[in-house]
Amino acid sequence: MTNSKLSLYYQPSQKSLEDSYLQFQINQQTTAVLSVIHTQEAIILPVESVTSMPNMPTYILGLMNWRSRVIWVIDLPKMFNLEGLDHHLRQYNIIVLKVESKLLGLVVQEIKGTTKLKPDDIHSPVGQVATSLVPYLCGCVEQKEEILLVLDAHNIVNYSHSDSD
Question: Taking Cα atoms as reference points, which of 35, 43, 17 lies closest to residue 148?
Answer without folding.
Answer: 35
